[in-house]
């Protein structure tokens, strides 16, 4: 269980040296309890204390890293049941299934979809995370070929699926350095799979028909020295799978160590209906699944899952924000209007959407207001004249237009006079209060 700051403080050297970057050991302990710093920053903590603190401070659900390098995928590490209690940490992984029974054309298509499907939203790139390669034929040679194709396509994050340790061992000869997830150890192949995962230093999925069976298998594997495990409860119907995800999370948070691991789920094995599969996947994103394996990747189905995941795994205490800067909409020219708003993501998407649909070429300036909406930012002193003026001067918009007219939101009309003082020579225009009225406003806009 997580320790409080006072409990952690008892293990620290109490020198108040400040070398960790925090003035006192007590303050450092509080930051450790809040998971804002790492214990390794303290140069004088004893090895005995370090061992006790690291064990006690470990999250109830282990963090498992799949793949290696800077672009590695991490799953687990969660500490709460509901995101408003703190936040969810490592987003659910979205994987697509590719089997060695598929034609070369189909394999190529799926690999291309995996690599090409990218969406920009709120300054983030949303994309699928993993390729699940399955040995349907049970043949090591065809599985090996499949791994080579995926590697040649630039894929580095894998789930290798086979109940045969021999098949996985041969596949690993081409991708062990990528640290793929091996699926799966069960009651029949536990020793062989455990030995392979330990030898190759790869994470291992555990399959059981019940949670009791899963707990028994993970206990045996941890006794073998394996820690990076992922759980498949074996459920292949929506009701049982949903219940299992909740029970695993609750058990882990109550310090049931054999279930303190992230989960992997297979909506692709529950239904053949693509739309139903997406609905199941959406449910699992919201209810604790660590990895979701889909039968295919289609943009219209993948995008809503990625947006749902982004929303759920965004810190509720920090507003979603768009990057400050100049955004070109509808290929603006030197005579195109310039409008400005806050970087609250919802504001950005509504305003940019209205401008785009108006088909009026426009320069959209986004001012950093720490993710606050226009009125809230104005009240907080972040969308005011002495903040907007310097931004407009420094952003470079003046060098890209012939006129000197700036449209501000109608809700911030009160700053127009002060803004004219901050921007000598500029004509400050007051736009509509609601973005819905931007289209007629822009179509009638004149610089002078």
Q: How would you portray this structure in words?
A:
The chain has three domains: 5-57, 3-methyladenine DNA Glycosylase II, Chain A, domain 3 (Orthogonal Bundle), CATH 1.10.15.40; 64-312, Alpha-Beta Barrel (TIM Barrel), CATH 3.20.20; 325-443, Rossmann fold. The chain has 16 helices and 17 strands. The protein has helices spanning 5-9, 25-33, 47-57, 104-116, 140-152, 165-172, 190-200, 211-223, 238-253, 274-286, 299-312, 345-358, 374-379, 385-395, 416-422, 438-443, and strands spanning 64-66, 73-75, 93-99, 119-121, 124-126, 130-134, 158-161, 181-185, 204-207, 229-232, 264-265, 291-294, 325-329, 338-342, 362-367, 405-408, 427-430. The N and C termini lie far apart (66 Å).
List its salient traits.
448 residues; alpha/beta; 3-methyladenine DNA Glycosylase II, Chain A, domain 3; TIM Barrel; Rossmann fold; eight-stranded parallel beta sheet; three-stranded mixed beta sheet; 16 helices
Summarize the structure.
38% of the residues lie in helices and 16% in strands. The protein contains 16 helices and 17 strands.
Form type: globular
Model regions low in confidence, pLDDT < 50 over at least 5 residues: none
In CATH, the architecture of the largest domain is: Alpha-Beta Barrel
CATH C-level name of the largest domain: Alpha Beta
Radius of gyration based on Cα positions: 27 Å
Number of helices: 16
Number of domains as seen in the coordinates: 3
Q: CATH superfamily name of the largest domain?
A: Dihydropteroate synthase-like
Structural class category:
alpha/beta
The biggest beta sheet is recorded as: 8 strands, parallel
Strand order, sheet with most strands: 10-9-8-7-6-3-12-11
Give average pLDDT, whole number. Answer: 92
Fill in the CATH topology of the largest domain.
TIM Barrel
Q: Which strand-content bin applies to the residues?
A: 15-25%
- Number of DSSP E strands: 17
């Amino acid at each position: 269980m997580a320790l409080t700051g006072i409990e952690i403080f008892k293990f620290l050297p109490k020198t108040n040296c400040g070398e960790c970057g925090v003035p006192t050991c007590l303050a450092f302990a509080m930051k450790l309890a809040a998971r804002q710093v790492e214990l390794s920053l303290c140069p004088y903590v004893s090895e005995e204390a370090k061992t006790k603190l690291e064990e006690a401070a470990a999250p109830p659900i282990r963090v498992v890293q799949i793949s290696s390098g800077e672009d590695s995928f991490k799953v687990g590490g969660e500490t709460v049941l509901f995101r408003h209690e703190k936040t969810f940490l490592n987003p659910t992984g979205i994987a697509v299934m590719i089997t060695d029974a598929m034609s070369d054309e189909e394999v190529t298509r799926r690999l291309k979809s995996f690599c090409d499907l990218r969406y920009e939203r709120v300054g983030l790139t949303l994309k699928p995370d993993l390729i699940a390669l399955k040995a349907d034929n049970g043949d090591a040679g065809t599985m090996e070929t499949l791994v080579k194709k995926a590697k040649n396509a630039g894929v580095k994050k894998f789930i290798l699926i086979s109940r045969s340790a021999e098949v996985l061992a041969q596949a690993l000869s081409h991708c062990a350095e990528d640290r793929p997830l091996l699926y799966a150890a069960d009651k029949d192949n536990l020793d062989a799979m455990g030995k392979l995962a330990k030898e190759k230093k790869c994470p291992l999925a555990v399959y059981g028909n019940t949670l009791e069976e899963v707990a028994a298998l993970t206990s045996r594997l941890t006794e073998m020295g394996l820690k990076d495990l992922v759980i498949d409860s074996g459920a292949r119907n929506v009701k049982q799978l949903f219940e299992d995800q909740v029970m695993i999370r609750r058990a882990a948070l109550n310090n049931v160590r054999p279930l303190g691991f992230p989960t992997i789920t297979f909506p692709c094995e529950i239904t053949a209906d693509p739309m139903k599969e997406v609905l199941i996947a959406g449910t699992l994103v919201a209810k604790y699944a660590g990895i979701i394996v889909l039968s295919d990747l289609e943009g219209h189905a993948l995008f809503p899952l990625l947006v749902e995941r982004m929303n759920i795994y965004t810190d509720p205490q920090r507003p979603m924000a768009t990057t400050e800067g100049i955004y070109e909409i509808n290929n603006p020219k030197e005579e195109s209007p310039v409008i400005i708003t806050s970087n609250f993501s919802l504001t950005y998407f509504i305003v940019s959407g209205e401008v785009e649909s108006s088909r009026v070429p426009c320069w959209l300036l986004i001012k950093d207001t720490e993710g606050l909406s226009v009125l809230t930012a104005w009240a907080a002193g972040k969308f005011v004249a002495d903040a907007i003026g310097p931004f407009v001067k420094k952003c470079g918009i003046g060098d890209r237009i012939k006129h000197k007219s700036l449209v501000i939101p109608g809700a911030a009309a009160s700053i127009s006079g002060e803004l004219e003082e901050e921007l000598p020579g500029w004509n400050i225009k007051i736009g509509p209060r609601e973005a819905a009225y931007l289209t007629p406003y822009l179509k009638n806009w004149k610089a002078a």
